[in-house]
């Protein structure tokens, strides 16, 4: 079965050298070869029919990725892929992200494509402004890749690690769940469907962030905000473009929830394991410091060295985060008190207890 998957993905991936004047014809040829080898179901074929070449290619990529999830679930033993097969699988996800994710993200959401995938520059597409198309395609991508997190095969789980494509899932869910959409020009049914997709994206995102180690979740949110807190110009540092206002606010809101989550939540994970005991403040310290240039980390997850030039700015930025009042503590106008006093006290008491525990 893995041999059949290898042949299918080999037919799906474009050659290394592509004529930049007509990349769509190359993708069309790849789609034709893939459909012959993979023998997809009627639903996949009907979805491909009548679509643009780039969208059809993304549908084929999603269909192929789903094949690994199905094989992992049905196989009695852990599947094992060759090094060449894993490399092709990564390329498949990269093309899917290039063609099926970045065109649907607002400018400033996620790391710019040119920082990550130089080889795919000839396949870059213009932004898609239809909100319903963006929501549907980004959710479809996120649902597909989230399945790899529970695969038995480590090679498949690694695809959604922080070193590879975890950030793309989080960026996609943020775009669907938190972007402000003007719904006045759409029908009530379209608005209802959009709100449902937005709610699902927020639920999937929060579940994912809670399952990740605290420092990893916070680091991904800080990257989406446009860099580490207390950032300072240092030679060798990569300056990320500014994130849109809605994204910065959403990331800040999620960060403040994660800061106190360990002290206020006791739910178990899906597999019955105990919840993470990460200290929110400690996780924020590590996440912020690990984004600074010139950091030397230890195998045990500690930071052994940090550029002294960054320490004052980093400390000031962290202090501002810890002392700031989260937006979710502030009530909406006309709904009662401006601030929930008891919730505010519990929030800052949790922060104080964590800081006290770290310095003792």
Automatic annotation (TrEMBL):
GO biological-process terms attached to the record: protein secretion
Residue ranges of every copy of the TANGO6 N-terminal domain listed in the record: 81-257
Protein name per UniProt: TANGO6 N-terminal domain-containing protein
């Amino acid at each position: 079965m893995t041999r059949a998957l290898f042949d299918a993905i080999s037919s799906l991936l474009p050659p290394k050298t592509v004529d930049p004047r007509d990349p769509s014809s190359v993708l069309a040829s790849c789609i034709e070869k893939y459909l012959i080898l993979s023998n997809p179901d009627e639903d996949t074929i009907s979805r491909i029919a009548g679509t643009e070449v780039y969208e059809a290619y993304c549908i084929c990529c999603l269909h192929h990725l789903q094949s690994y999830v199905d094989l992992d679930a049905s196989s009695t033993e852990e599947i094992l892929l060759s090094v060449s097969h894993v490399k092709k699988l990564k390329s498949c996800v990269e093309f899917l992200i290039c063609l099926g994710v970045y065109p649907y993200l607002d400018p400033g959401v996620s790391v710019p494509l040119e920082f990550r995938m130089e080889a795919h520059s000839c396949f870059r597409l213009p932004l898609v402004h239809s909100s319903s198309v963006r929501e549907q395609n980004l959710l479809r991508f996120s649902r597909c890749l989230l399945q790899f997190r529970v695969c038995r095969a480590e090679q498949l789980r690694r695809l959604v690690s922080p070193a590879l494509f975890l950030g793309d899932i989080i960026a996609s869910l943020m775009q669907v769940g938190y972007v402000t959409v003007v719904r006045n020009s759409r029908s009530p049914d379209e608005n209802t469907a959009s709100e449902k997709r937005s709610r699902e994206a927020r639920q999937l995102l929060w579940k994912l962030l809670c399952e990740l180690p605290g420092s990893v979740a916070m680091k991904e949110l800080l990257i989406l905000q446009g860099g580490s807190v207390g950032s300072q110009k240092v030679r060798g540092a990569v300056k990320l473009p500014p994130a849109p206002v809605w994204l910065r606010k959403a990331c800040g809101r999620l960060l403040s929830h994660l800061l106190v989550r360990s002290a206020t939540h006791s739910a178990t994970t899906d597999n019955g394991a105990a919840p993470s005991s990460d200290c929110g403040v400690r996780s924020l310290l590590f996440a912020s410091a690990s984004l600074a240039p010139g950091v030397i980390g230890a195998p045990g997850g500690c930071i052994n060295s940090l550029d002294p030039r960054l320490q004052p700015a980093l400390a000031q930025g962290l202090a501002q985060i810890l002392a700031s009042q989260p937006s979710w503590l502030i009530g909406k106008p006309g709904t009662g008190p401006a601030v929930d006093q008891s919730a505010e006290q519990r929030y800052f008491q949790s922060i104080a207890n964590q800081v006290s525990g770290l310095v003792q």
